[in-house]
Design goal:
globular, Ubiquitin-like (UB roll), four-stranded mixed β-sheet, six-stranded mixed β-sheet, about 50% helix, 6 domains, Beta Polymerase, domain 2
């Protein structure tokens, strides 16, 4: 909506939703503020290139319709873009203005949202659990977290309007932060959609493949579901139960994980869907009715007892209740049946919004315990959800702080940790050389106590070394262990200096040092260890010349001569063979928009070839090119998003690339010969290596071939699959 003078359908819809939870005066004020801001053109585009008021309206609708939050939270969402774009007030003045016009509650929510926005502005790398915890500790009102989840879902739905260079980061943050939090809050519907959208944004090829397969099989699947549930419906109807039965297809993200985990083709997945039986039962009959349905289903179809999941007796920690059983349906296919009541289904699908109506459970500590506490507060019967949530603040991690490195990595430390603790947490070498730090741009000593959100840049000196008194003010076990270890190493170096001094003195006196004789001499002097002996020399407690004279006397008295030990045989180490380096045309890639001729190398973890969907990662060894579906892509995008650069193929393939294929098939006579024959007949394809292992009538092999691009690879895979006896051909 470019201007509030012409309200959009979404805004009118939101207005109808807010009538029961927001006063007409508040709605009038919000509209007035937005009109002024729109007229001043302060809100034309936000950091993602979107109209901020349109984004706020869509986020607010998600909150009201899909999560069930209204009142002050919606007011805050609508006001946030207005006040974030003001050019005439400081943040403190802005928040004071919000408090005066809309109350302290709305002001506190906006304050929490601004704190998280500041956190994201630090260009942090998202190390899953630590970043989630810091975000939660910054957002001390639970409504802030729900708003953040809704806003991220809104952004992902609007991905087509976003700049290409932000899409991967948005998807990675969703996977690392928002999906796990939504899961713990029981927002399964939101969580499932975010997972699918993240896959769509990160690996469109896989998403489209699975979505296409699901659509292709829909008619046959619907027919099978109808055949499966018909006798169940008939029997449950005779028992007088009120129910609904429906089939639910697994999410695309879930299917992708199954394909990857089981290493099978799509057609070999038989549990693409689940049958859900939803009962209309009274609270006192819920469990009994569910188990009665279980009895009916297992009487008709043979159950797999190993796949029984009873979340009726002991619900999941996020409140999920259901009874799952896998049975053998028609045509010998395994089918999962989920049995639950309407109350359980609403909680499973909508999480917090449904919890307002129903009483649940509370257990656990820390993050999970707090999440359960949120649910218990929201689950009180006959209580207004806004009244319950209003005073509910997060009190997490009172014994932990989270501190940033200059590059944005996040370090978790105990409360009262000092700069020196942080330095040792980053790297022991950094801690040993630490002399001071800059905390949030200001100079600080190594004793400076840190707070959550601090950004710390350690200052070092090559002349620095750990001191004994450091142990008096560090608080982390890691720092104490490293300091003690370093002090021991310093002592060891002093001992080594003493040892060298004694050797030099022996050499000057033309005394041949004999190790066994020296050991006996040291014991004769009353030392329990050799280290103690040299430590006394290093400390000056024993003079070296006196030691040499006593040693000569001891040696003469023993009158022993021990032959020197023969040296052990030397082992021949073959010189390393240089690894084959893939060659590439300088112009095969365009890097960061318009750069060519820049040195790069394909990542060994995924071995991209011409035609693959790819991205660039700036490493310490130059630019590495990864496939979008690389096994490490999720971690790289999440932890080091600031190192990603856009790359694309340009022109024609400039080289041959190595591709490893995994082939599984029947161990038939001549099958390997047939496969190698197919490869040899392909133009531009060279077989580089082959490794075959056969057992129990099956063979598994890996083939490494050299080829030009994905078209050649896909063509080769298709021809190998056509060889009689071949079951699977997968690219590593």
């Amino acid at each position: 909506m470019e201007n509030y003078s012409t309200p959009t359908a979404d805004f009118l819809k939101l207005g109808r939703k807010l009538r029961d939870s927001t006063t007409p005066e508040t709605i009038r004020k919000i509209t007035a503020y937005a009109r002024v801001t729109s007229a001043e053109k302060h809100n034309e585009k936000d950091g993602y290139g979107l109209n901020p008021i349109q984004r706020s309206i869509k986020t607010a609708l998600i909150l009201t319709e899909e999560i069930g939050i209204a009142g002050p939270a919606i007011t805050a969402v609508m006001l946030l873009p207005i006040f974030q774009n003001t050019r005439t007030q400081t943040p403190a003045e802005t928040e004071q203005k919000i408090k005066e016009d809309f109350g302290n509650e709305v002001k506190e929510i906006i304050h929490g949202l601004n704190r998280v926005r500041e956190l994201n502005g630090k260009n942090v790398s998202i190390e899953s659990e630590n970043f989630r915890r810091l975000m939660l500790s910054f957002a001390r009102d639970v409504r802030v977290i729900l708003i953040l989840i809704a806003d991220r879902l809104c952004l992902m739905r609007m991905a087509a309007q976003l700049p290409e260079n932000t899409i991967q980061q948005i998807a990675a943050e969703a996977s690392f932060i928002y999906v796990p939090v939504a899961h713990r809050l029981g927002l399964y519907q939101v969580k499932s959609e975010m997972e699918d959208l993240a896959l769509k944004l990160k690996d469109r090829e896989t998403f489209d493949f699975i979505a296409g397969k699901i659509n292709e099989t829909k008619q046959a699947r619907d027919k099978y579901v109808a055949r499966f549930i018909a006798p169940i419906e008939k029997k449950l109807g005779r028992l007088g139960l009120t129910f609904e039965i429906k089939g639910r297809t697994k999410s695309i993200h879930s299917i992708k994980n199954k394909l990857k985990r089981q290493q099978v083709e799509f057609e070999q997945i038989y549990d693409l869907f689940a049958i859900r039986v939803i009962l209309n039962s009274s609270p006192d009959r819920e469990k009994a009715d569910c188990w009665q349905v279980y009895s009916v289903v297992t009487d008709m179809y043979k159950p797999n007892p190993k796949r029984l999941k009873d979340w009726l007796s002991i619900p999941k920690r996020n409140g999920y209740e259901s009874l799952h059983i896998t049975v053998m349906g028609p045509e010998g296919r395994w089918v999962e049946v989920q049995i639950r009541t309407q109350r359980m289904d609403e909680i499973a699908e909508r999480g917090l919004a449904a919890h307002w109506k129903y009483k649940g459970i509370k257990d656990g500590n820390g993050l999970d315990g707090w999440m359960d506490g949120v649910r218990e507060a929201l689950e009180q019967k006959d209580a207004d959800p806004d009244d319950l949530i209003r005073a509910f603040k997060i009190d997490l991690y009172e014994n932990e702080i989270f501190v940033f490195t200059p590059k944005g990595d996040l370090i978790k430390l105990p409360r009262n940790a000092v700069v020196l603790d942080f330095a040792f947490a980053v790297h022991s070498g950094l801690g040993c050389k630490c002399v001071s730090a800059r905390v949030n741009g200001k100079n600080a000593t190594i004793r400076h106590r840190l707070r959550s959100g601090d950004q710390v840049d350690i200052q070092t000196s090559s002349g620095q070394a750990p001191k004994q008194d450091w142990l008096n003010f560090v608080v982390t076990d890691r720092a104490r262990v490293k300091i003690k270890q370093s002090l021991k190493e310093q002592a060891a170096r002093q001992v080594e200096f003493a040892r060298e001094a004694l050797k030099r003195r022996f050499k000057n006196r033309k005394i041949t040092e004999d190790e066994p004789t020296l050991m006996r001499f040291i014991r004769k002097q009353g030392y329990k260890t050799v280290t103690d002996f040299y430590a006394d020399i290093a400390a000056g407690k024993t003079e070296v010349n006196a030691v040499v004279e006593r040693y000569e006397e001891f040696e003469r008295s023993e009158k022993e001569s021990i032959a020197p030990k023969e040296r052990g045989a030397e082992h021949y180490i073959a010189p390393e063979t240089p690894a084959d380096k893939p060659t590439h045309d300088d112009d095969a890639l365009v890097i960061d928009g318009n750069l060519t001729g820049i040195d790069y190398a394909p990542a060994k973890c995924c071995s991209p070839i011409y035609g693959d969907e790819i991205f660039g990662f700036v490493s310490s060894k130059g630019i590495k090119i990864h496939r979008r579906n690389c096994p490490n892509a999720k971690e790289l995008c999440g932890r080091f998003g600031y190192r990603l650069i856009n790359v694309k193929w340009s022109g024609r393939p400039g080289a041959n690339y190595a591709v490893t294929l995994r082939v599984i098939g029947n161990n038939d006579l001549g099958i390997v010969t047939n496969i190698t024959s197919v490869i040899s007949k392909e133009n531009g394809v060279t077989l580089r290596s082959i490794n075959i292992d056969s057992s129990d009538g099956l063979f598994q092999g890996t083939l490494t071939v050299m080829l030009s691009d994905t078209s050649a690879m896909n063509g080769l895979i298709g021809k190998i699959r056509a060889v009689k006896g071949v079951k699977q051909v997968l690219r590593y």
